[in-house]
Amino acid sequence: MITVVGAGTGAPVAEDVLAGAALVVGGRRHLDAVRLPEGAERIVLGPLAPALDAIAGYADKDVVVLASGDPGFFGIVRALAERFGAERLDVRPGVSSVATAFARIGLPWDDAVVVSAHGRDLRTAVNVCRAHPKAAVLTGPGAGPAELGAALGADRVLIVASALGDPGRERVERVTPAEAAARDWGTAVSVVLCLDEARALGAVRTVAGAADRPARWALEEDAFAHRDSMITKFEVRALALARLGPRPGDLVWDVGAGSGSVAVECARLGAAVVAVEKAADGVERIRANAGAHGVDVRVVHGSAPEALAGLADDPDAVFVGGGGRELPAVVGACARRARRAVVVAMAALDRVPAARAALTSAGFTCDGVLLQSSRLAPLPGEVTRLAATNPVFLLWGVRTPASSKGVDE
Fold first, then answer.
1. Which Gene Ontology molecular function entries are recorded, alphabetically (predicted)?
2. Greatest distance between any 2 Cα atoms in the chain
3. Residue 99: is its pLDDT beyond 50?
4. What whole-number distance in Å separates Cα of residue 15 and Cα of residue 187?
5. Residue 369: which pLDDT band, with cuts at 50, 70 and 90?
6. pLDDT tens digit sequence for 258-304
7. Model confidence at 403: pLDDT above 60
8. What does pTM read for this prediction?
9. Is-contact 68 29, C-beta < 8 A?
10. Which among 87, 153, 165, 287 counts the fewest CB atoms within 10 Å?
11. Which residues contact 252 (CB under 8 A, 6 or more apart)?
C-alpha cells in the first residue's frame, strides 16, 4: 500500500500513519518534520522519475509519500496513480495551499480559477490572471511572483503566500505587480493569488471555478453599442470565433476592433484579450461593451500595424477587422507573431489576394469563404421577406507545424 499524506499547511503527520513504513518519500522539509520508523529508508524528492522507480522496488511493502497540502490537487497523486494504479493508493489530503491562502485573506475561492505554472509555460497563468478577476497561481522555478508581476499590468493585486503552515516563517503579503517584479522571493512561495480587488468577493456560484461558459455566443448586434451598424455581424462572428478558438489561457488580439464585439465574445469564452482601435470614440465604445458584458478587455488606442509593436506578448490568435490600404501590412504583422491562427474579415474583394499572400508568406495554411446571408424580415400583412446582409470575405490562416512557435517562448 502507498499512503499519500498531505502535510505542510499546519496539520502534523500522525505517527500511526508512518508506523510500519519501509520507505518514506517526501520533500526535505516534510521529512525533517517527522520521526521515521526504525529501519525505514527515506528518499528526498527531487526529480520525480527516480522516486517512482524507487517506490516500485517496494511493491510488497508499505510506502508513505509526504506531499504539500492536498496531493490530489495538482500534486503527486496523478503520477502515482498512473504508475501504480489508484487502487494501491490511500490518499489522506491536507488543506491545499490555495484554500489556505484564501482563508488567510478572508475570501471565498469557489469562484477562483486555479492554474499551475510549476514546470509549465508561465504565459498560460499570465493570461488566466488577465482574463479573470480572481486567480490562484501555483508557482515554480522561473515562474514565481517576480515573473508573474513583470508580465501583468497595474490593474491587479498580488497576494504572495510563503511557507504556509510554518508558524515561524509563514508570510502573506499584498503587493502590486511592479513590487512583485522588483523582489527576489526565494523558494518558500506556496501560491500567488491574483485579484481584481473591485470584484474579488464575487457572486454566489453554483459551479466552482471560472465563470460559467456562456450559453450563447455570436450575439445579436443589438447586444453591443456600435456606430452606424459598423459591427461584425453575428453570422460572420460565429465563424470567426470557430476559427479563432478562444479558450482560457489564450491571448487574443482584436485589431481594428470597432465596437469590440469579437473582443468581448473572446473574453466571454475565457481568453485574455487586447483590442486595438484607432478611433477615440471606438476605444470608449469597446470599454463600455466589455463592462456591459462583465469581461476584461485591454484596449489600446492606436493604428495598426504601428500600435502592434507596443504589445509585448505574442497572441495565440488574432482577428483583423475592416481593412484599408494598410490591410496587407496589418495582416503580415499579425501573422508574424500569432502562435496559432489569424482570421481576417473584409468587405472588399480587392483586398483578398493581398491578405491571403500575407498569411501564406508567414507560413500559414490559408482558407476562406464568402459569407452571404439573408435574414427573415417581417412585412405588413403577416408575411416575411428575406433581407440580404452585405457579403463579407472571411479568411483564416492556421500556422503549420513546421512554422509553429515554441510553446515556451
1. protein methyltransferase activity
2. 93
3. yes
4. 28
5. very high
6. 999 999 999 999 999 999 999 999 999 999 999 999 999 999 999 99
7. no
8. 0.83
9. no
10. 87
11. 244, 246, 263, 266, 271, 272, 273, 274, 315, 316, 317, 318, 319
- Phi then psi dihedrals of residue 2, to 5 deg: -110, 110
pLDDT tens-digit map of 177-229: 999 999 999 888 889 999 998 888 877 777 777 666 777 888 888 888 888 77
Say if residue 28's pLDDT is above 90.
no
Q: Is the dihedral of CA 114, 248, 178, 154 positive or negative?
A: negative
Domains annotated on the chain, with CATH: 2-94 (3.40.1010.10), 98-199 (3.30.950.10), 221-403 (3.40.50.150)
Question: What percentage of the chain has pLDDT greater than the value 70?
Answer: 96
For 65, 86, 114, 347, the CA distances from 318, given in Å and listed in that order, are 45, 42, 26, 18
The three-state (H, E, C) secondary structure of the chain, written as one string: CEEEEEECCCCCCCHHHHCCCCEEEECHHHHHCCCCCCCCEEEECCCHHHHHHHHHCCCCCCEEEEEECCCCCCCCHHHHHHHHCHHHEEEECCCCHHHHHHHHCCCCCCCCEEEECCCCCHHHHHHHHHHCCEEEEECECCECHHHHHHHCCCCCEEEEEECCCCCCCCEEEEECHHHHHCCCCCCCEEEEEEECHHHCCCCCCCCCCCCCCCCCCCCCHHHCCCCCCCCCCHHHHHHHHHHHCCCCCCEEEEECCCCCHHHHHHHHCCCEEEEEECCHHHHHHHHHHHHHCCCCCEEEECCCCHHHHHCCCCCCEEEECCCCCCHHHHHHHHHHHCCCEEEEEECCHHHHHHHHHHHHHCCEEEEEEEECCEEEEEECCCEEEEEECCCEEEEEEEECHHHCCCCCC
Residue 100 — left, alpha, or beta (φ > 0 → left; ψ -120 to 50 → alpha)? alpha
Average pLDDT over residues 108-131: 91
Strands (E), 302-363: 317-320, 341-346
